[in-house]
Amino acid sequence: MTQMMREIGEQPDALARTLAALLPMRSQIARLADGRQHVLFVARGSSDNAAIYGRYLCEVLAGRQAALAAPSLATHYRADVGLTDTVAVCVSQSGETAEIAETQAWAAAHGARTVAITNVGDSTLARAADLALVTQAGEELAVPATKTYTTQLAAVAVLASSLVDGPPALDNAFARVPAEAARLLGSASAAEDAAAVLAASADTLVTGRGITYGTALEVALKLEETCLRPVRGLSYADLKHGPMAIVDVNVAAVLVAAPDGPTIDGMTQLATTVRERHAAVVGIGGDAAFAGNCDIVLPGPDLPEALAPLALVIPGQLMVEALARRLGLDPDRPRGLSKVTQTES
Hints:
By secondary structure, this protein is α/β, with parallel strands linked by helices. It has helices at about 5-10, 10-20, 25-35, 45-60, 70-75, 100-110, 125-130, 145-160, 170-185, 190-200, 215-225, 235-240, 265-275, 290, 310-325; strands at about 40, 65-70, 85-90, 115-120, 130-135, 205-210, 230-235, 250-255, 280-285, 295-300. Strand 1 (about 40), helix 4 (about 45-60) and strand 2 form a beta-alpha-beta unit. Helix 3 (about 25-35) packs across helix 8 (about 145-160). The protein is globular, with a radius of gyration of 19 Å.
C-alpha cells in the first residue's frame, strides 16, 4: 500500500479531530471578525483550492464578500491597500511558505485581522496570526496533500459558519462528515475503473461549478502533479465558452458535482453534452440523474452542498492514486516536488 493511500484512509479520523478542535472556536472567530465585511484568502497550491471553497462559502452561507489575494501585491509590488474592513485568512499546511507568511504580515500592517489555517501549531504563520485554526491531520508524509487538504476544508467551513448571523450553521451536517468520509473510502474499486478510463485517454479535463469548483481544481491539480499529465481544471461555465471545442473521443471528462444545490442541473446537462461529443465521462458525486448521464460514477457524500467538498474529493484522490500506480509512477514522491514549496528560491 502506498503512503498516499494510507493517508487517504486516515481522513475520517483527521476530520473528526479537526472538527472537534475547531468548532468550539466559532465564538472567537465571530468576535475577531465583528464589524469586518470582507474576507481575503491567501494561499497557494492545494491550499488555494481550499481557499476557493472558502470564498464561495463565505459569500453563499455568510453573506460576506470574499476574494483570493494575489500575494505578489505584498511580496513584489508592496501595494498600499486599505484592509481595515477585512479578515485575512492565510492557508498553508506547513505554515512555513515564506510568501504566505509575508503576505499575512502585509495584510496585518494594512489593517486586516489575520487568521492562520495550518497543520502546524508552532509554525511561523500560526505564531504571527491574530488567531490560528490548527488542523489535526497529523504528520503527512506523502508529497500530494490529502488529509491536510480535507482538514483545511473543515477549518474553512468552521470559519464561514462562524460568520453567519444567528444560531451556528450546519451543526447537524458537521456531525455527519467523518462517517461520510469513511463511507467513500469504499469506492476504491470504482476508482480503479475510472483510472483505467483516464489511462486510455489522450487528454483529461476536470470541471465543476460553484461550491464544488475548488474540488474540481484540486482533482485536476492532483492528476497533474501525481500522474504527470497536463490536465485542465475549469468551471463548466468556462468550459462552454470555447474549450468545449476540444472535447471529443480522445478526451476523458471528470465532472465533479454536489448532491444538491443550484448547479446540479447544469452539471447533469453538461454530462449529456460531453457524452454526445463522444468523450468518456467520469462523474464524482451528484444525484441519480447526474449518475445516469455518466459512463462511470464515483459516489459522493450524503451531505448538503455547503459541506459536500469535505468528503467529495476523496473518490478523486482514490482515482488519482490508482492512475499513478497504473502508469508505473510513485504517487508518494511525484517528480520535482517537495512537501513545502517556496515560490521564490
